[in-house]
Amino acid sequence: MAFMEKPPAGKVLLDDTVPLTAAIEASQSLQSHTEYIIRVQRGISVENSWQIVRRYSDFDLLNNSLQIAGLSLPLPPKKLIGNMDREFIAERQKGLQNYLNVITTNHILSNCELVKKFLDPNNYSANYTEIALQQVSMFFRSEPKWEVVEPLKDIGWRIRKKYFLMKIKNQPKERLVLSWADLGPDKYLSDKDFQCLIKLLPSCLHPYIYRVTFATANESSALLIRMFNDKGTLKDLIYKAKPKDPFLKKYCNPKKIQGLELQQIKTYGRQILEVLKFLHDKGFPYGHLHASNVMLDGDTCRLLDLENSLLGLPSFYRSYFSQFRKINTLESMDVHCFGHLLYEMTYGRPPDSVPVDSFPPAPSMAVVAVLESTLSCEACKNGMPTVSRLLQMPLFSDVLLTTSEKPQFKIPTKLKEALRIAKECIEKRLIEEQKQIHQHRRLTRAQSHHGSEEERKKRKILARKKSKRSAVENNEEHSAKYSNSNNSAGSGASSPLTSPSSPTPPSTAAALGLSKRCKEGKDVRFTSSASASASTSTTSSSLASCEPRGAYTAPAPGCEQCEPRGLTQLHPEFPKGNFEESRNL
């Protein structure tokens, strides 16, 4: 077969489901217009960011393209006069930032090709419809019985998966749908095993699996053909939409929001759970359950797109369950996605946010019980129930399924082992991504808490207390040093001998000590004042008691150490009379 003779090498490593965030960093006014500098980031990594420059006209063009969604988006209005004023530009920048926040947080808009090209032109500049047409044309060279009727433009949400309405030349009234898709970041099968498993899909027979008419693949993409169903998918039933309309038009803003009847919820839910259990028992990974992947055939639900897990494509709800570390297996992913689908069947719309704190009134409390086990805060925190456990819950346990078709899907042992290894690799990448998100969330929470007003006040109070404590400690240390210096100065002076019967006054003792130090040629310092009120008689008697120490030797003329002038300068309170008496002695 000459199908896709020169395929591009390797798989697409970029995960299209990783959300993009955009922040306008600055604006620059040129001669006739203003440009806005926008910082775009993929996921949580700051390193994975880039700058783009956009004018207001670019925003207006994007907004006109998104009008097909039927949403009222908050784009700031145009202004022809005065649109270069500084205040007006600042106000417009705030409005454009709000516009970016709205389109990047809307789950459907943020994943559409229009928004991706606006924010990330380097990775989404290719014309994927044209690429798909080229690949399909190559396929028709070797399979002339097929003919393209028309491209079904944007009927799905995936950027790299395209659909075409087909017919068989000898059966012109019969319509089929051809789907073509690139390989995704979770493709871990070898090329040989991958192509064998893709070609095995038409042999899969199950009452709740939509049958594949034809399937083939090469090293970089896959092509499958199924019968076209005029009734569309389960999501088309819920939103009252036409199958051939674009995805944005069908599901962004439904005209009428109304859930299904209780019996429909019970029957469809039981059928979907049965086919999930069948695939899990076979060891075949799925992980792509949502309402658009469930085809309606009368009162029977049939699962679509079994090839997605083989191609390595990320799940529609990946940005939801990647936030919860307990949803880390393909079975728990399917159960969580089933909760989303059950919510849509019950209320006619998707949940506003996940986890869901409280559920609106439902047709039965049994419905709420299943929703709580799959979408509540407790379930997302503690883990999902198994598919078998859901089948035993009151909502589905009493549903009787009548079908005569026997399931058949034979997978060789070698391919089962390859599927098991690929499944483990898919789960490993999810766990690693969840770990990074969890660490980033903790860091962000800590930074937010550290920068809060209450935390800043606490830090100011602690800083004041620490400053006061340091001041007190410094004063105590200074006082201790001052006291030690006084003690050391006092212990350095010689203490004269005194008579027990006639105590020597401090001034006289100081003078005697001074005379001795002067006699020995030592330096003299005073740290405490002598009493100026001591009587002369007491001083004379005290000096008389010290005669055995020897006569006083007069200092040499000009000796500053013993001059009265030096003593009075060093310590003014020292009485000159005491000094003269000690000198005469």
Automatic annotation (TrEMBL):
It is found in: Cell membrane; Cytoplasm. Residues 437-514, 526-585 are annotated as: Disordered. Gene3D superfamilies: Phosphorylase Kinase, domain 1, Phox-like domain, Transferase(Phosphotransferase) domain 1. InterPro entries: Kinase-like_dom_sf (IPR011009), MONaKA_PX (IPR037903), Prot_kinase_dom (IPR000719), PX_dom (IPR001683), PX_dom_sf (IPR036871), SortingNexin/PXDomain-PKLike (IPR051837). GO terms for biological process: early endosome to late endosome transport; endosome to lysosome transport; negative regulation of monoatomic ion transport; protein targeting to lysosome. Pfam families: PX. The keyword Transferase does not apply. Residues 88-481 form the Protein kinase domain. Keywords: Actin-binding, Cell membrane, Cytoplasm, Membrane. It comes from Neomonachus schauinslandi. GO terms for molecular function: actin binding; ATP binding; phosphatidylinositol binding; protein kinase activity. Residues 437-448, 457-469 have a biased composition (Basic residues). PROSITE patterns: PROTEIN_KINASE_DOM, PX. Transmembrane segments: none annotated. Belongs to the protein kinase superfamily. The keyword Membrane applies. Residues 14-126 form the PX domain. One of its GO terms (cellular component) is plasma membrane. Its main location: membrane. The gene is PXK. Binds to and modulates brain Na,K-ATPase subunits ATP1B1 and ATP1B3 and may thereby participate in the regulation of electrical excitability and synaptic transmission. May not display kinase activity. It comes from the Eukaryota. It is a peripheral membrane protein. Residues 483-514, 527-545 have a biased composition (Low complexity). This is PX domain-containing protein kinase-like protein.
